[in-house]
């Protein structure tokens, strides 16, 4: 669980909400000289699962890190990765 840290440095037991994570990510992207609109918290999370699939990491292990609860939802990223790198894709 990620703990919330207020802008004044106070730590809260309440978890960060998705909008806060997204705002932090966009702010850091801007500070790094990147285009903030190209980044999102969802993109990082889904990109992590896609890359895990590409690297052959077992789905349950990747789900522990991404904190996905739904196997059906998480496996959709694995299925997409398999379609892009499978035998049929290599024929192109």
Structure in words:
- With 92 residues, this protein is mainly alpha-helical.
- The protein folds into two domains: 39 residues, no CATH class; 53 residues.
- 60% of the residues lie in helices and 9% in strands.
- It is built from five helices and two strands.
- Strands 1-2 form a two-stranded antiparallel sheet.
- Strand 1 and strand 2 form a beta hairpin.
- The chain is flat, with a radius of gyration of 16 Å.
Keywords:
mainly alpha, two-stranded antiparallel ribbon, 9% strand, DNA binding, Integrase-like_cat_sf, DNA_brk_join_enz, Integrase_catalytic
Number of strands: 2
Class inferred from helices and paired strands: mainly alpha
What coarse outline follows from CA principal-axis ratios? flat
Order of helices and strands: EEHHHHH
Give the mean pLDDT.
Answer: 82
From the N-terminal CA to the C-terminal CA, the straight-line distance is 43 Å
State the helix count: 5
Number of domains: 2
The low-confidence parts are: none
Our estimate of the beta-strand percent is 5-15%
Largest sheet: 2 strands, antiparallel
Strand order across the biggest sheet? 1-2
Q: What portion of residues is helical?
A: 55-70%
Radius of gyration: 16 Å
């Amino acid at each position: 669980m990620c703990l919330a840290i207020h802008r004044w440095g106070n730590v809260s037991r309440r978890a960060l909400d998705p909008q806060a994570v997204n705002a932090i990510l966009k702010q850091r992207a801007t500070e790094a000289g990147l285009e903030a609109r190209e980044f999102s918290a969802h993109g990082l999370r889904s990109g992590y699962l896609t890359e895990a699939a590409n690297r052959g990491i077992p789905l349950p292990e990747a789900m522990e890190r991404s904190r996905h609860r739904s196997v059906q939802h998480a496996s959709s990223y694995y299925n997409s990765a398999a379609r892009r790198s499978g035998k049929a894709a290599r024929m192109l």
